[in-house]
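Write out this protein's structure.
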Amino acid sequence: MPLTRAIDLKSDVDRRSVVLFGPRRTGKSHLIQSTLGADRTYDLLHADVFARLSRRPSLIREELQPSDRLIVVDEVQKLPSLMDEIHSLIESTNVRFVLAGSSARKLRRSHTGLMAGRARQRRLFPFISRELGPFDLQRALNTGLLPPIWLSDEPWQDLGDYVGEYLTEEIRAEALARNIEAFSRFLQTAALANSLQLNFESIASDAGVPARTVREYFALLEDTLVGYTLEPLDMPPRKAVSHAKFYFFDNGVVNRLIGRREVVEGTDDFGRAFETFLCHELLAWRAYRQEDDPVRFWRTHNGDEVDFVIGDHTAVEVKATTFATEKHLKGLSRLGGHLTLRRKILVSRDPTRRRIGDVDVWPWFQFLQALWADAL
């Protein structure tokens, strides 16, 4: 049975051209093919198509027919020179473009005019809970939510292939890192630090690369869409930490990088994987709903922390416990003393929804149902 994705790409294309970013194998091509009726498609993964357009980018203009209304260019980051022709066609014709890519690095650096407003930027995430019907949390924490991995009979082996493909195709082939061996070591070390505050010096020491290089590598992870940085909420200014937190985009990829086949319930690893899963859902919700409010976190040097703060109005703390009590509410209570919050929510594995003081305690599955129903 085909799975319906939560992102509404068709409504975007009805209004303007779209740049659809997303990590490798999140289903960009399938989404475009299944929801849009393209008049013409150029897939730059095909060697013959890449060769033709790299020799003569103007072919995309010369092959344009009067009846063409929608043109798709897949893996557009492989040929940034094509963007000049596309930009010109968007300006001079009524043709809409959907440009799909797994890296924003080259396009943002060389074509800021197009990226800044001529085309709407959207991001596709791996599967979310809403798209999968009956949802297996343990499976999501172990092997992640990449579509081909979720549907695979051999997810561990396929995750290994995915990591290798990322290193060889995205990093080596595009010459994004000078030393692929050093980047590979860094990748494993970064996975061990998933969901934690960034400490470049510590990661550099563990990975055996300079701290300056580590900073560049984290920027590369963001540019290739396999991770995202969560900035701290600067509130209150004298006590809040200033270092960001970094989350990989998929728990399965994290586990494969560090060789962990199963996230064991009751461990710190389980709690961090659970937090990463909720982060994934919140950021996907923000992107798909095109919400303006940022998602940040709050932490003080005294150790008080709230995992996610939406805008300046909603605080969400995540605990993997099956029985939330007052001791789990300390961060929410402390933040509420500094910031007027509309809602304070604790997401846990409790079986039923309840309320402790002014905090809503939500079972994770009910929280996500309410989130995607826009009912929070």
